[in-house]
Amino acid sequence: MGFIHRTSKQTSKVKTLLGLALPRLAAARRPRLARRSISRSDVGQLLALGHLDRALHRAEQFIEEDNMLEAFDIIELYCNRLIEHAKQLDKPNECGEDIQEAAAGIMFAAGRCSDLPELMFARTILANKFGGDFTAMAKEGTGVVDPMLVWKLSGNKRNMEMKKKVVKEIAAENNVLLDFSEFQEG
């Protein structure tokens, strides 16, 4: 004798909001992909002209766009996971670690992804389901929030080592020899 597990209205609403966020994610990716591609091309051109300092500065834009695109991939994964396992949200205390991580990730990303307003509404519902302590940790990016997502959404794009790595990769692709020894960091 089985019974049908029905989801609450709030859970259905989260499922709908996350479903709406998926096409918006796809739309938000397009301009970021274009800006990343343009930034990469600009870095290559600046290196070819011998403007290492300007190429390093332009690498910041590339890193920022690349980080957001990778964050979007993680957010998409979380949206799909929560949609797929929405009925577990009706009993948040019994949710597995993967569902808690997905919920926390959505809650963290909501405040940092203005391109995805549905996440803010979903965060409110998830906060009601999971409680204040969980919500506070999720908003801060601690607890079960994936450190990679935290880093991608709030990472330091001005990190000189990261910029040098990106510039070196692009230089190698464009057969440009680099010499950082004369470069003055400032």
From TrEMBL:
<dbReference type="InterPro" id="IPR005061">
    <property type="entry name" value="Ist1"/>
</dbReference>
<comment type="similarity">
    <text>Belongs to the IST1 family.</text>
</comment>
<dbReference type="InterPro" id="IPR042277">
    <property type="entry name" value="IST1-like"/>
</dbReference>
<protein>
    <recommendedName>
        <fullName>Regulator of Vps4 activity in the MVB pathway protein</fullName>
    </recommendedName>
</protein>
<dbReference type="Pfam" id="PF03398">
    <property type="entry name" value="Ist1"/>
</dbReference>
<dbReference type="GO" id="GO:0015031">
    <property type="term" value="P:protein transport"/>
</dbReference>
